[in-house]
């Protein structure tokens, strides 16, 4: 390896020592007697200073001939310099061009010129060089790491289930069909059925972080056609138990990002407010009342529109759960209350701006599940591989699915979900 340090690992106290950094030619400023090359690596910026009087002529020529955004390796001596980034500059012994950049560049990376999101996504590799974009994906990494940490500590086992499947999970959402040799198959819309099989298998608590595919035609700022879902399923717990796990997870993730992601939050110019526990719980009926009070029309049994979600979100003003949903608008696997089967043990976790997660205690009786599937107009025989697991000892169980992108966009106050996905898939975008 040629690199000895990231730009931020070098300190003024290292004055006099020799180091090698690798990165992109962020800026070249030629002032005649003195030339500055600012090198940008993953972690930050380093100033390379060339004094015309003392510098090797070959090194100066290389730097003067450099095109912006070319990749270079710079070996030089550290010199304490209060005015430079991180309090030091490098006086180079050698500068090597490792990857030349053509000009003009397809987009500006300094943040001085605003590019629209479409342009940025077309050349995402360039967009990633911007500090703001990099900060989002560093935070995304922290979020994923925190989720794994938290669920592992809570006794959840990480699983990965198939994404190529023979049947729809729950009807409703449109699927992407694909050719599977001589048969038709689909991209999975949710790991729901598989994680429930794990409960019959005795794994007790499982989680999966993986893609879900939804052939939704709409083009909104909160829907993707390929999203990442954080899914859990746990035996011998009811819906209320898993709501507690979910709210604790959210707070754990926020706290971790606030603690370990300070630098990235600063780059994004934001301060993270950690939500208070426990989150408010309101019933579906109470949600309907809030919507009606605002003058909007809603019938009992209607799903909440985006507008209704905003109205309730404004009223509550922080994270909250909506519980006790009408059975008919929740999937067949949500468990109806025994004494009031028109509502079920399902919940949605809401951020004031949008839904983050849906969950429920599940039906675990074979007979009830079969009739629920049929009641929802689905063909029960198509679910044979799933239903079988309920006939040979299925424990009561509950779980939820949490959208990773929605968690991040609401946490960071980002308007468009595409900002928090490297290469988003939507109605119009399939490349890169
Ligand atoms: P919505 O009504 O907001 O479209 P949903 O109720 O259809 O969402 P669920 O099937 O309940 O979504 O999925 C669980 C979670 O997965 C959602 O709360 C959301 O965070 C995330 N999710 C679902 N579909 C998408 C999508 N198309 N794009 C991004 N995230 C999604
Ligand atoms: Mg939902």
- Ligands (ions, cofactors included): adenosine-5'-triphosphate, magnesium ion
Shape: elongated
Provide the CATH superfamily of the largest domain.
Answer: Bira Bifunctional Protein, Domain 2
Gap between N and C termini: 30 Å
Count of beta strands: 16
* Structural domain tally: 2
Structural account:
With 432 residues, this protein is α+β, with helices and mostly antiparallel strands. The chain has 2 domains: 7-99, Nucleic acid-binding proteins (OB fold (Dihydrolipoamide Acetyltransferase, E2P), Beta Barrel); 126-279 and 318-420, BirA Bifunctional Protein, domain 2 (2-Layer Sandwich), CATH 3.30.930. It has 12 helices and 16 strands. The chain has helices at residues 57-64, 117-122, 124-127, 131-153, 192-200, 239-260, 262-267, 284-293, 306-316, 366-375, 384-387, 404-411, and strands at 18-30, 34-40, 45-51, 71-80, 88-99, 157-158, 164-165, 177-180, 183-187, 205-213, 226-235, 280-283, 320-326, 343-351, 354-361, 397-403. The strands form 3 sheets. The chain has an 8-stranded mixed sheet with strand order 6-10-11-16-15-14-13-12, sandwiched between helices. The protein has a 5-stranded mixed beta barrel with strand order 1-2-3-5-4. A hairpin with a 4-residue loop joins β2 and β3. α4 crosses α6. The longest helix has 23 residues, at 131-153. Magnesium ion binds at residues 348, 355, 358.
């Amino acid at each position: 390896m040629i690199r000895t340090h990231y730009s931020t690992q070098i300190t003024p106290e290292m004055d006099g020592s020799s180091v090698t950094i690798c990165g992109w030619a962020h800026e070249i400023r030629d002032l005649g007697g003195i030339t500055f090359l600012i090198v940008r690596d993953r972690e930050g910026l380093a100033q390379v200073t060339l004094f015309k009087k003392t510098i090797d002529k070959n090194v100066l020529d290389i730097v003067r001939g450099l095109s912006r955004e070319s990749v270079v390796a710079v070996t030089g001596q550290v010199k304490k310099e209060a005015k430079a980034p991180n309090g030091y500059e490098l006086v180079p012994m050698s500068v090597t061009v490792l990857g030349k950049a053509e000009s003009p560049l397809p987009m500006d990376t300094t943040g001085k010129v605003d590019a629209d999101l479409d342009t940025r996504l077309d050349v995402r590799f360039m967009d990633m060089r911007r500090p703001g974009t990099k900060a989002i994906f560093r935070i995304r990494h922290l979020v994923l790491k925190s989720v794994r940490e938290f669920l592992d500590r809570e006794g959840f086992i990480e699983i990965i289930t198939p994404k190529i499947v023979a049947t729809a999970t729950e009807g409703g959402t449109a699927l992407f069909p694909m050719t599977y040799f001589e048969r038709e198959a689909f991209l999975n819309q949710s790991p729901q059925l598989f994680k429930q099989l794990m409960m019959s298998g005795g794994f007790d608590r499982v989680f999966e972080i993986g893609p879900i595919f939804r052939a939704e035609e709409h083009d909104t700022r909160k829907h993707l056609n390929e999203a990442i879902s954080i899914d859990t399923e746990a035996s011998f717990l009811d819906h209320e138990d898993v709501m507690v796990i979910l709210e604790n997870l959210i707070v754990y993730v926020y706290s971790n990002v606030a603690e370990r992601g300070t630098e990235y939050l600063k780059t994004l110019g934001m301060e993270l407010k950690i939500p208070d526990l426990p989150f408010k719980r309101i019933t579906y009926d109470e949600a309907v009342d809030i919507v009606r009070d605002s003058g909007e029309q809603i019938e009992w049994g209607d799903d909440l529109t985006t507008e209704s979600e905003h109205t309730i979100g404004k009223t509550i003003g922080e994270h909250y759960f909506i519980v006790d949903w009408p059975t008919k608008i929740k999937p067949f696997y949500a468990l109806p209350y025994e004494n009031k089967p028109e509502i079920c043990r399902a919940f949605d976790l809401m951020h004031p701006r949008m839904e983050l997660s849906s969950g429920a205690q599940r039906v675990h009786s074979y007979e009830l599940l079969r009739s629920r599937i049929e009641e929802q107009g689905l063909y029960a025989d198509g679910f044979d591989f799933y239903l079988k697991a309920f006939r040979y000892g299925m424990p009561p169980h509950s779980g939820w699915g949490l959208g990773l992108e929605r968690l991040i966009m609401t946490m960071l106050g980002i308007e468009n979900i595409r900002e928090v996905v490297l290469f988003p898939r939507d109605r119009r975008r399939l490349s890169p």
